[in-house]
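Bench notes, afternoon.
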Amino acid sequence: MIQNPKRYTITAALPYTNGPIHIGHLAGVYVPSDIYSRYLRLQGRDVLFVCGSDEHGVAISMKAKKEGITPQQVIDKYDGIIRKSFSDFGISFDNYSRTSAKIHHDTASEFFKKLYEQGDFIEEVTEQLYDAKADQFLADRFVMGTCPKCGNEEAYGDQCEKCGSTLNATDLINPKSTITGETPIMKSTKHWFLPLDRYEDFLKEWILVGHKNDWKPNVYGQVKSWIDGGLEPRAVTRDLDWGIDVPVEGAEGKKLYVWFDAPIGYISATKEWALREGKDWEPYWKDQDTKLVHFIGKDNIVFHCVIFPAMLKAEGSYILPDNVPANEFLNLEGNKLSTSKNWAVWLHEYLEEFPNQQDVLRYALTSNAPETKDNDFTWKDFQARNNNELVAIFGNFINRVVVLTNKYYDGIVPTPNELSEVDEQTLAELKAYPSVISSSIERYRFREALGEMMNVARLGNKYLADEEPWKMIKTDEERTKTQMYVALQIAAVLSSLCEPFLPFTSVKLSRMLNININNWNLEFEDWNLLPAGHQIGQAELLFSKIEDEEIQKQIDKLEATKTANKAENKVAEPQKELIQFEDFAKMDIRTGTILEAEKMPKANKLLILKVDTGIDIRTIVSGIAESFKPEDIIGKRVTILVNLAPRNLRGVESQGMILMTTNTEGKLVFVNPDTDGVGNGETIN
């Protein structure tokens, strides 16, 4: 670990521009990295926080094929959506770039050429999967098959999303092309490989020995598993039509593997920032006094802790990450988040449906962050955290302090008298919080840090509840001044300490208190964060209660998605055995109308129906009572098999059968004539 670094380079995983940002991305990467960056800036540190759109690779090509547009149109569309979402949500990047930028193409090409010229690659002709029907080699994501490690039948050629194993496409059992559905063949092609096995000793020493005690167990464990399993050469080029050209002779038609070019995007984003700001980029990547921290999700651990460090080591002039605090996955309402199945809470939609409530989502995601294990986001928990914590604890404390100050002193901070033992004790406790929260943030325990920040609000509420200034004002006005002064200091401290977690709330609270502390290292000696005589503003609600109707709307939206997915994935039952026309002609199917309906006594499933068949009015017993109320189906147009042999059911003779089917939700639906003018008794043939 670097002690007292001169500067910090903080990276957040580059999001693929094949779709918008969802809460899983936020919880795993962007909220924790933003908290860390904001905290360090409040400490007065030299911080560079970079990210950018990852615009190459198979994910983009797949999206383009699916939407019937060009890869360029895909990346331009989603880069715009993602940029706006991050900006509106308050993610405080110093630079957000894109890997389609010329500066990135140049940086990645130069990086590759240097390793190539140093002899760091192995050039090899290998057998790769090839789709003869599509006439192209299949990149990892264009292949799907059975995972050899866990048996998942929907594993991709680069990774099994069920067990998390990193794979090669040729490892899959029964591989299929996702382009045509054909079984691919093997075909020879030339590629360049980074021999990871050469870096095993270096990685063991650097991570397994050097970072045994400071890296998160989930990160350390995954890296150890990889290294213990033995590292092998990994291709850094691909047969693709979208990406950065491999910049050497004999590589026509080949592109840099996206996992080679994407992490270099952090470097090119830094160069872009430095050019814009008139700064030198190199110290942020090449000075040993710089602390480099990568924020990623667990699916990217191998690339940031094995492959990218091996690339940096091979290049020779770059620093290595001091930490890679990867988070686990966030699930949604008990199911795994899935962009392809639209099982997600999309950030741009959230911002439209919950305007000015960015901090509520930041709070909910941090409170429930999947820091060491997968966690589950539910809308009910989101509502509870807002109503029971942000509104009832934080918002309630601030509102009481500001309202009482305006009521008693016209908004002017009163001059305190001698502090009581309770006052001294409260202020001493308050003074300890910045370092307590710092300790948690420095160890990447953001959930714990947020809890401590909320404890400051709890401290304020307890102080007010115990001291009761609204009662004291009636008997001892001078004592009340001291109580309100102490409460106002707690409010002032909160305006600074909440900034990394709740930046919009911090701005609102600072405006309300008419201050701009913007500093983590608070001057507590004279307790003049809000000095006597300072004028504060009027009270405004920091948070508002979220009603059940708003939450139900979101739950219904997800249920609609679930229903749509079932419909899309529903497989029709196979055709029955062939029959002759004469067999069908024996059936007499007519249109009719239900005239009466009642429940069969002592039978949960049966309804007794009186049906006008056009021939007669007859009784039909139907097992639909669990799906329909009798009163709801009177007058319903139906289709009836009228020449079915009568059958006695619980003493009632049933003279026919109502034709039904089921919808995508598995509910019974009448098969009925929907054209006006079709009378009862018409035959269906």
